[in-house]
Amino acid sequence: MLKKQSNGHSDDEELTLINVGIHIVCGGQMDVHIISETHNAVTCSRCALRVVFPRSVKTYGDLRNWLRGELNLE
What is the pTM of this model? Predict the structure, then answer.
């Protein structure tokens, strides 16, 4: 599902790809947004958590592996 959403800070718009669940820490809605030609972001509607990742990441497994590499947990 794609929907246009104002970011509240400018006239720019983001495209929300999908709601991916509930943030276990604060209970907010977690959404995936297209933020550029090369990157997406997972954001929380309640606590403002934002994780930016390459658009080449397509699955939860890809995201976990990418995060492990970014955090040097390999």
Answer: 0.71
Give the distance, in angstroms, between the CA of residue 23 and the centroid of all CA atoms in the same chain: 12
Domain boundaries, the chain: 3-70
Contact 34, 49 (CB under 8 A): no
Q: Return the closest-CA partner of residue 43 out of 73, 5, 69.
A: 5
DSSP 71: T
Number of H helices, E strands in the chain: 1, 5
Interval 34-51: pLDDT, tens: 999 999 999 999 998 999
Largest CA distance in the chain: 40
Selected from 2.40.160, 1.20.140, 2.20.25, 1.10.150, the CATH number assigned to the domain covering 3-70 reads 2.20.25
* Residue 71 banded pLDDT, cuts 50, 70, 90: confident
